[in-house]
């Protein structure tokens, strides 16, 4: 026998008992003749059998096997991670960003003297796309109003000095260029003046010695001030600064200019007249990578015209399609917290013209009734979803198909799809049915949002930043407010 086979056999074979006859005696006890003695003997035999099994299990747990298991576990996990595949590098998208006209050397030399830049130190990272997208839109809008070039950065999941990190037992890119997700002025797209530039370009034309750092210490806090007042204060403050390279410091006070309280409050709505006419929104577009994924799945979406899918500038919708955002996963913990905080819907989910309202200050008879109210709108059951969509279908004639934007498990979705089919829907598909290549996979959330933006009706989760951004973009496109509904 080969040495390695012999060693493996010694590791895996159970140790032999030194007393086979004793073990046999325990396993095959004789039954006494009397009834009481019989019951006692049976109990004794059972106890002996259990002790025998326990000893056998203990004999199996040897030091060698324990060491082998400890050594093998990291190897097993490493194999699982590698089997998930190596994520793409998006080097083609990075090359595209570097070749943007505002990054050309000739223009760069001129802009060293004439360019006006605005960078925000401490931009959000390690969060979902929509938390970061909210911030990007506000910051680039401020730069536009201030006649400065917004400095855009990568979508950053981790600040590890490696191209990949591990998440959910799979490799994940630590950085993805923002142009893999979006196009338009916020990502360096066409603008009449002061096109946005990459942080790489900023570092080249704005060395540290030339940067003017502005603190947010004296600024009105977005947690309490009106959105319009916050924006106007910063526009006035920046108009007083003559230096070309300006960086707003958000790190020293650990307080972002636009925080979760700002985006989660109706105070942001005072900005809508300015924001809705800004090229930041009017010229916003999903990236070609995202658009290609939507086009690839045209058969799933069943458009009456391919132009609705293939032409990013098309303002039409997909007739008969209702897109529904069903946030699961972490919302199972988050929704009860929202009830305890008496939270309202996200800011852009509270447009006065939207048909569905949510009142966190309803006079509930008891805490359980309040929790039920929140859970119905935040984490509805299959039955509640089916009933809600039935009502939406009754109010919007012609709806026949359902697209589910969700992070739910497949088995749960199968049950929901079956229930929707029984309720009369022609078709129900979900995020799991969309075909994506390796690059599109990591921008899948944006693909879902692009589909939701094209749906005839969108039914969102009022507490979600994703739903808030979809509603904002649909409103900016001029779609009727009544086409935006909530669970």
Largest sheet: spatial strand order? 8-2-1-10-9
Number of discrete domains: 3
Class based on secondary structure composition and strand pairing: alpha/beta
Looking at the structure, the CATH topology of the largest domain is Rossmann fold
| Major pleated sheet | 5 strands, parallel
Give the radius of gyration: 30 Å
Q: Count of helical segments?
A: 22
* Spatial separation of the terminal alpha carbons: 67 Å
Strand tally is: 16
Task: Assign a percent range to the helix content.
Answer: 40-55%
Pathway: Protein modification; protein glycosylation
Organism: Jaapia argillacea MUCL 33604
Main location: endoplasmic reticulum
Subcellular location: Endoplasmic reticulum
Mind explaining what this structure looks like?
By secondary structure, the protein is α/β, with parallel strands linked by helices. The chain folds into three domains: 3-83, no CATH class; 91-281, no CATH class; 287-486, Rossmann fold (3-Layer(aba) Sandwich), CATH 3.40.50.11350. 47% of the residues lie in helices and 13% in strands. The protein contains 22 helices and 16 strands. The strands form five sheets. A five-stranded parallel β-sheet has the order 8-2-1-10-9. A five-stranded parallel β-sheet has the order 14-13-12-15-16, with helices on both faces. Strand 9 (211-215), helix 9 and strand 10 form a beta-alpha-beta unit. Helix 21 (444-454) crosses helix 22. Residues 1-36 and 108-113 have low confidence and may be disordered.
